Amino acid sequence: MDEGQCKMKIGPDQMNFTGYQPLKSREQFCDDIPDVGPTIIVLDAVQDELRDMNLEIRILRDVGQSHDDENLEQNTETYVQPKKYRTGTLNFEYDFKKKGKFIGLVKARSDDGTNEYVSRFPFSVGETESRDITIAAFFAGLGLVGFGLWYKNSFKTKPPRA
């Protein structure tokens, strides 16, 4: 995030990224997707160069592949064909059925093929709740330890003063 916007680099250029799950809440997100279900992804090209290039996006299941091209078709969750987006806005909807880890690949390619940029961003779906519970449990445990130490020390008998 930068200045309240979710930004990603694609070659020398930049895109803003926003996600929504309108059936779940009105909040937007820009990293991990909070839950499974219909999700709208919006990518906005900041520089004009990207508006003149063919943009495509592919969402892959992260199965621990050593590189993204490994079993590409088998690991592809959804694919948006290359196309020019003259307004600079690429948006699509996908219904995530399963929780897990994923990889987003955005490719930008010039018509003559001389310029090709790729942006790769890993993300998870439906795992933010368990992460929040883990963080809350950690701080609750830390609070209990602190309270226990305070309680133990507050009832010690102090030696009489001379």
Tell me about this structure.
- The protein is an alpha+beta fold.
- It contains three helices and nine strands; from the N terminus they run E-E-E-E-H-E-H-E-E-E-E-H.
- It has helices spanning 48-51, 72-75, 128-154, and strands spanning 7-10, 13-20, 28-29, 37-45, 54-61, 76-84, 89-96, 100-109, 116-125.
- It starts with 6 loop residues before the first strand and ends in an 8-residue tail after the last helix.
- The model has no long low-confidence stretch (mean pLDDT 84).
Largest sheet: 5 strands, antiparallel
Looking at the structure, what is the overall shape? elongated
Assess the beta-strand content as a share of residues: 35-45%
Distance between the termini: 62 Å
What percent of residues adopt helix (DSSP H or I)?
10-25%
Structural class: alpha+beta
- Low-pLDDT runs: none
Radius of gyration: 23 Å
Can you give the mean pLDDT?
84
How many β-strands, per DSSP?
9
- List SSEs in N-to-C order: EEEEHEHEEEEH
**Count of helix runs:** 3
Keywords:
4-stranded antiparallel beta sheet; single chain; 162 residues; alpha+beta; 42% strand; 5-stranded antiparallel beta sheet; 3 helices
